[in-house]
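Q: Can someone sanity-check these two? First one:
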Amino acid sequence: MPPDLPDAELEARREGIYNFLQVPWNLEPLLWYGTMTCLDAFIQQFTFLPLRVLSALLMLVRGQRPTAAQSRDLIRGLLIILVSALLLQIDMSHAYHSVRNQSTMKLYVVFNVLEVFDKLFSSFGLDVLESLDWALTKRQSRQRSRGGVLVDFCIAFVIVFLHTLVLFYQAVALNVAVNSASVFVSAHPTHVSHMSHPTFSQISHLFITFLFLCF
């Protein structure tokens, strides 16, 4: 039999149970909302951004000074064009076969390393782009900023290009895994087991942390 507890504590525990049961129901809409927000931001780069860049270019042609927002649109459009032009120089077939020829263990390690770099570039790249926007705003108000717009643009270009390469090779590695009959066909069962243990441990750790937060 459970020990006698005060009504307030029993009510709090009961409330925690019901909150835990409601988490999946409330989590799905949040995930869908986040996914749709990311999709909207991605599509905006190919729909509204070109129109805004065109509007800013028309102002420059007419001899008018673009606003800070229009300057940011021009810089973002220029970043996309330059990075895309460099990415098109990469031979997709060569990149695919260079990843395809790696062993199973190397492919697993490469994919995990790329995932780590993806997170690092996502975090650092956001700060770099925000710094570039701030430098453009200061330039618009004729205030001097450390480094200047050109330096911030060069840093942003390098970071965005490196992050694009990481995402590109992630897609190539995933394509190799999908096109293979089985990624682990030639791997020894012991090796597959060793590779799976960290994943199982991480999932268990996250689940226990999740339960701790709920109760």
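And here is the second, same format, sequence then tokens:
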Amino acid sequence: MAGKTSGDVGQNATVILTITSDNYQDSTVNVNIDLVDKFVPIVMVTDYTRDYNGSKVEISEVENNCTASYGGANVPGKLVLQNPTDFDDVLNAGNYTKTVNFVPDDNTTYKESAVNINIDINKIKPTGKPSFTKITTTGKTLADANILIGSITPVGGNVTWDDGDTTTVLRNKSYGWTYVPAVADRTNYDNLTGITVVWKKKSSGGGSGSSGGSSSTVTPDNKNDKKPVDEGQRTPEFKDVKKGAWYEEPINFMVEKKLMKGTGKEEFRPMLQTSRATIVTILYRMSKEKVDGSKNSFKDVKSGMWYTEAIAWANENGIISGFEKGEFKPNQDLTREQLVVILYRYAMYKKYDSSKNISLSEYDDVNEVSKYSKEAMEWAVANGIIKGTSKTSLSPKKGAIRAELATIFMNFYNKFM
């Protein structure tokens, strides 16, 4: 073997061995040796995805996406750039494919190898909100509201009212706006959308009535079947609806529209959980359509209940679907994602615009959004119908309380109706 080195890969050598024994004659054996290279590990690199943050991707960020093995055993190692400047252009939103080297820690046994990695950088939404001139009298248009960029960043883009400047401003009505980033920023930023009320005016008075309801009035939960406020009566003053609370305006809106009512003459119970039957009933009464409740197909929906016709109507028109075993579970708490799915299907049933959507990547709990509700949630967020419970959380499995239901439904109503 003298003279053979590791550089002679692919060559072979013959070694002559002499076997000696006290009882037998000496003999020789020829041993042929083929020289082979180091072991080549199998390197797997999953796609690396992150949001745009203004800085380039570093090789250290993608190392956790890399695994290497040989013969079923893990091969420790690290990723190394082939050239120091290879990642200098991996900065803006977009898709990149880069070739890097996997360097095993045990470079005596294992061979270094090249591997491709796909990098996706997502666009992000601008932050902040616009400013505008508050409207305080009748006869004004959105042009008078004079919407400006306000605190939105990045600056340099353009913000406009979705309904156009010539739209007459109505009291307590929400109006949508869209911020389009400057051309130079559109590579990395999506449009920012939102809604706002430019003329806020509280209802005066606070009496409540008790005589019969109309087809546009609903019972808000399965524990309450009292008669709603009369048509023509002003919004009642609820003791448990605090002045200036985030839910005050939506609750007043829903009561004035005869879509929700209090649980008593002076209570609304904004923090009470909402049932699945409630949202269906609101939509049914608002649609002013009629259906034969006897055709109900859910075995847990009894005839003659306050929600029976509504559930039959919603099921017949593809707005709801039940659970396994033919159940609807009308009294089960309504989750936030169930709520937006039902509104989304209602929008499609009514042929409202259901095309607008937006990525949910900015929310840390995006993976908690069920597959069946993802499209509806993207649509609801894009249209300003639902907002996160925080800047980074959607809480899709969280039960929707009455205050949230009022807020989300008001946003939907103002957007499409």
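A (reply): Looked at the second one. The longest strand covers residues 94-104. Residues 402-416 form the longest helix (15 residues).
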